[in-house]
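For anyone still unconvinced, we reproduce a single protein record, the chain in one-letter code, the fold tokenised, and leave readers to judge:
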Amino acid sequence: MHDFLQVMNSFIYQESTIAFVTAAAQTCLLIEKAEEHSREEWREQMLRLLPVLYLRTRLLTSAERLLEEEPQRFVTEEDYNYTLLGIRNLLGSDDAYLDVFVDRGIYTDEVQTAYISEGVADIYQELKDLAAAFQTGQEPIMNDAVLVCREAFDAHWGQKLLAVMRALHAIQNDGMME
């Protein structure tokens, strides 16, 4: 009975963690199957999933790492490039958008061209590594993968998610005005 309670109180079985991993898996699936959707359909589904993913990531409770080494990375350069090109091909001319560089919360006047496909591929890489870690079924690996993914969210992919949402939102609204 004690082991059962310990497992149920484990970080990876908490409601917030399960909700986060579920949102991550749904996002990976939509990204992986992008070619099965029209541009508009994929964009609409991303605009529904990304806010959920952002919220689920923010709602994760804190925990401690269980392993000394960094979790294994599963996404290869080929996987990353395949994802990037798939999204780039799907979006076509809608892939590029103008963005303002942000460094530590400070906006600059420097406007640069950014690409939805690159942001999505970066997000996918983090989420797919997490999903692959969960497929091992080894709780310490799963625990640390969630924590590493959350740290990466704070460091970079959270900003990319917001930028991709902003770009997709702009495209969606431009298309509605035509």
